[in-house]
Amino acid sequence: TQLDSAGAGTWTAGPLVPGAAAGGDVQTVTNPADRREVVGHWRAADEAIVAQALKNAVDAQPAWDATPVDARASILEKAAELMEARMPQLMAMCTKEAGKSLSDGVAEVREAVDFLRYYALQAREQFVVEALPGPTGESNTLQLSGRGVFVCISPWNFPLAIFTGQVAAALAAGNSVIAKPAEQTNLIGYAAVQILHEAGVPAAVLQYLPGDGATVGAALTRDPRVAGVAFTGSTDTARLINRALATRDAGPLAVLIAETGGQNALIADSSSLPEQVVKDALASAFTSAGQRCSAARILLVQDDIGDKVITMLAGAMAELKVGDPGLLSTDVGPVIDADAKALLDAHAAKMQQIAKPIARATLEPGTEHGTFFAPVAWELQSIDQLTRENFGPALHVVRWKAADLDKVIDAINASGYGLTLGIHSRIDGTIDRIVNRAKVGNIYVNRNQIGAVVGVQPFGGQGLSGTGPKAGGPHYLPRFATEKTVT
Ligand code: ADP
């Protein structure tokens, strides 16, 4: 990879595994905005490379675990500096490989940098020998160390931030790491690993294994040498990984740290300001082309402001610029690939049968070859009409009556997902009532649902949305570690 070049076609990614071959056939990456521009190339890992990576990881872990935490943390901080310095290149990769808007690209790099610094800081604080009470006069201490080999499996929607966050935490805790990026974003993951190597992480301590989830991902998670998996992706895949880990009849009882999907709602009551509801619903539903786990899919609006909100929403959607994510004027870029678009098209066809259309944004000229899905909003009679997470710019509006507030919250809870919830209200009692009843991980009051600030707003859900602990929070790092007491 020519990391210092933002030029198209010059990036090449492949397995980074000492002692292994270069990988399978060269595959081409194209820009999702036109499916023509060649952005780079990549090669997948095969079975022999996976085997070599696992062996390297086992051999390299003890020395890394024995490296003073201060040294490990300094390496992560160095990587943060390098990433910051290369923001323009990394942003360009986010736009060209993942179709991210420029503002998303900035946020992506910032979040990755924040993860590196935060976990470095947390490691320094948490990986110390802590004195516990010694009531009998004996010395009594608690300390953390790495679990062993950690596998990090990441998604394409935050190809730099989530990838870097998982890897940084696992490394900070003293694990050796095998990182498998999503098939759609191999170049970005590769660039992140290169930066970490340049900062001083030994090559065998952090290895990179691009490839198919069903082959490379599955081979890693069923291997008895793996002590833990950090995963972000779909709930179905989290279950597959859980099963793979559970059916191993040798090796450590591995942990799974999973962050998965959501069926997120925004509840607005009649005391809320329609202008603000619409502005925040738009941001929550359509930022990053709706391809955020946290994105609002359902706008629940109290009936007496329903007409006003729906009219204003339609007006605002007509203003959205949907097109080239490399332009500053663009609000919404393409969805990640043809499969994602096909799923959304199928959903739209279904909604056409059962929902009332509210508005559909128009596509800018020049979008015809890309995988664009125009942002759309429908009105539904009930939340139950939505059966699955629709990962894209699609919003569903449902009206509710004051007497039914608890029922509305229960219906949200009934999905089994529990990731984000927006509340718009100016009545404290209503806000408290919703906060207390809702089974979700992140709640946003009178603002949009975009917000997972490392160290400030740790992110993660419950139920079908993930195992916790929250990424970017104080409880995340210890989950990658084992505890030892000495009495
Ligand atoms: P999405 O719907 O976001 O594409 P996936 O859960 O399919 O979510 O993918 C998230 C990550 O999980 C990707 O890196 C993918 O390659 C990986 N993955 C998919 N299937 C498996 C599997 N069976 N075992 C391990 N990893 C997998």
Automatic annotation (TrEMBL):
Residues 27-486 form the Aldehyde dehydrogenase domain. Signal peptide: none annotated. Oxidizes proline to glutamate for use as a carbon and nitrogen source. In the C-terminal section; belongs to the aldehyde dehydrogenase family. In the N-terminal section; belongs to the proline dehydrogenase family. This is Bifunctional protein PutA. It comes from the Bacteria. The active site is at residues 259, 293.
